[in-house]
Amino acid sequence: MPAAHVARVRALYRRLLLLHRALPPDLKALGDQYVKDEFRRHKAVGADEARRFLQEWEAYAAVLSQQANENSQNSTEKACFGAVLPEEKLNDFRDEQIGQLQELMQEATKPNRQFSISESNKPKC
Which cell locations does it reside in (predicted)? Predict the structure, then answer.
Protein backbone atom coordinates (compact mmCIF):
# COMPACT_ATOMS: atom_id res chain seq x y z
CA MET A 1 0.00 0.00 0.00
CA PRO A 2 1.47 3.41 -0.96
CA ALA A 3 2.56 5.66 1.91
CA ALA A 4 0.16 8.40 0.80
CA HIS A 5 -2.75 5.96 1.02
CA VAL A 6 -1.72 4.82 4.51
CA ALA A 7 -1.47 8.45 5.63
CA ARG A 8 -4.97 9.18 4.23
CA VAL A 9 -6.44 6.19 6.06
CA ARG A 10 -4.79 7.14 9.36
CA ALA A 11 -5.87 10.77 9.06
CA LEU A 12 -9.47 9.72 8.39
CA TYR A 13 -9.42 7.27 11.30
CA ARG A 14 -8.17 10.00 13.68
CA ARG A 15 -10.70 12.50 12.31
CA LEU A 16 -13.58 10.11 12.92
CA LEU A 17 -12.57 9.48 16.52
CA LEU A 18 -12.22 13.23 17.08
CA LEU A 19 -15.64 13.90 15.55
CA HIS A 20 -17.17 11.30 17.84
CA ARG A 21 -16.26 13.52 20.80
CA ALA A 22 -19.29 15.64 19.86
CA LEU A 23 -21.62 12.67 20.36
CA PRO A 24 -23.42 11.71 23.58
CA PRO A 25 -21.23 9.33 25.64
CA ASP A 26 -23.07 6.09 24.78
CA LEU A 27 -23.21 6.96 21.09
CA LYS A 28 -19.52 7.96 21.14
CA ALA A 29 -18.52 4.61 22.67
CA LEU A 30 -20.61 2.71 20.13
CA GLY A 31 -19.27 4.78 17.22
CA ASP A 32 -15.65 4.51 18.31
CA GLN A 33 -15.87 0.73 18.62
CA TYR A 34 -17.59 0.44 15.23
CA VAL A 35 -14.93 2.58 13.53
CA LYS A 36 -12.13 0.55 15.10
CA ASP A 37 -13.74 -2.75 14.09
CA GLU A 38 -14.48 -1.64 10.52
CA PHE A 39 -11.02 -0.22 9.87
CA ARG A 40 -9.45 -3.39 11.28
CA ARG A 41 -11.78 -5.54 9.16
CA HIS A 42 -10.83 -3.68 5.97
CA LYS A 43 -7.03 -3.66 6.40
CA ALA A 44 -6.38 -6.19 3.63
CA VAL A 45 -9.14 -5.49 1.09
CA GLY A 46 -8.57 -4.91 -2.61
CA ALA A 47 -8.06 -1.47 -4.15
CA ASP A 48 -11.65 -1.06 -5.37
CA GLU A 49 -13.20 -2.00 -2.03
CA ALA A 50 -10.67 0.19 -0.19
CA ARG A 51 -11.64 3.15 -2.38
CA ARG A 52 -15.36 2.65 -1.72
CA PHE A 53 -14.67 2.14 2.00
CA LEU A 54 -12.80 5.43 2.24
CA GLN A 55 -15.43 7.30 0.22
CA GLU A 56 -18.20 6.12 2.54
CA TRP A 57 -16.29 6.97 5.71
CA GLU A 58 -15.28 10.37 4.32
CA ALA A 59 -18.94 11.08 3.54
CA TYR A 60 -19.88 10.01 7.09
CA ALA A 61 -17.19 12.32 8.50
CA ALA A 62 -18.53 15.25 6.45
CA VAL A 63 -22.10 14.67 7.65
CA LEU A 64 -21.04 14.23 11.27
CA SER A 65 -18.89 17.36 11.12
CA GLN A 66 -21.81 19.37 9.73
CA GLN A 67 -24.22 18.01 12.35
CA ALA A 68 -21.75 18.67 15.18
CA ASN A 69 -21.33 22.28 13.99
CA GLU A 70 -25.09 22.77 13.71
CA ASN A 71 -25.64 21.29 17.16
CA SER A 72 -22.98 23.51 18.73
CA GLN A 73 -24.62 26.60 17.19
CA ASN A 74 -28.08 25.55 18.44
CA SER A 75 -27.09 24.93 22.04
CA THR A 76 -30.66 25.48 23.28
CA GLU A 77 -32.04 22.61 21.18
CA LYS A 78 -31.50 18.89 21.74
CA ALA A 79 -28.53 17.57 19.75
CA CYS A 80 -29.48 15.70 16.60
CA PHE A 81 -27.26 13.17 14.85
CA GLY A 82 -27.97 10.71 12.08
CA ALA A 83 -29.09 10.40 8.50
CA VAL A 84 -31.64 8.48 6.51
CA LEU A 85 -30.33 5.38 4.77
CA PRO A 86 -32.01 5.35 1.35
CA GLU A 87 -33.50 2.05 0.25
CA GLU A 88 -31.43 2.13 -2.96
CA LYS A 89 -28.24 2.18 -0.91
CA LEU A 90 -29.51 -0.55 1.38
CA ASN A 91 -30.21 -2.73 -1.67
CA ASP A 92 -26.49 -2.51 -2.57
CA PHE A 93 -25.40 -4.00 0.76
CA ARG A 94 -24.07 -7.54 0.96
CA ASP A 95 -25.72 -9.97 3.40
CA GLU A 96 -22.76 -9.54 5.79
CA GLN A 97 -23.27 -5.76 5.78
CA ILE A 98 -27.00 -6.15 6.47
CA GLY A 99 -26.12 -8.36 9.43
CA GLN A 100 -23.67 -5.76 10.75
CA LEU A 101 -26.29 -3.04 10.37
CA GLN A 102 -28.81 -5.13 12.32
CA GLU A 103 -26.27 -5.73 15.09
CA LEU A 104 -25.49 -2.03 15.23
CA MET A 105 -29.19 -1.16 15.46
CA GLN A 106 -29.73 -3.72 18.24
CA GLU A 107 -26.80 -2.30 20.20
CA ALA A 108 -27.96 1.26 19.65
CA THR A 109 -31.52 0.56 20.77
CA LYS A 110 -30.71 -1.25 24.01
CA PRO A 111 -32.54 0.17 27.07
CA ASN A 112 -31.02 3.08 29.00
CA ARG A 113 -29.37 4.69 25.98
CA GLN A 114 -29.27 8.46 25.64
CA PHE A 115 -30.57 8.30 22.07
CA SER A 116 -33.09 6.36 20.05
CA ILE A 117 -33.41 5.06 16.53
CA SER A 118 -36.77 5.21 14.81
CA GLU A 119 -38.28 3.97 11.58
CA SER A 120 -39.07 7.52 10.42
CA ASN A 121 -37.47 9.29 7.47
CA LYS A 122 -35.87 11.89 9.71
CA PRO A 123 -33.18 11.42 12.36
CA LYS A 124 -34.74 11.47 15.81
CA CYS A 125 -33.51 14.38 17.88
Answer: Mitochondrion matrix
| Residue 10 structural domain | 1-78
State the 10-residue block means of pLDDT for the chain, 125 residues long.
Answer: 82 97 91 94 90 94 93 79 83 86 81 52 53
In a domain, 42, yes or no: yes
Asked if residue 53 lies in contact with residue 39, where contact means CB atoms within 8 angstroms, the answer is no
Q: What number of residues does the chain have?
A: 125
The Cα angle at residue 11 between residues 9 and 16, in degrees rounded to 5: 95
What CA–CA distance (Å, rounded) separates 65 from 62?
5
Entry pTM = 0.75
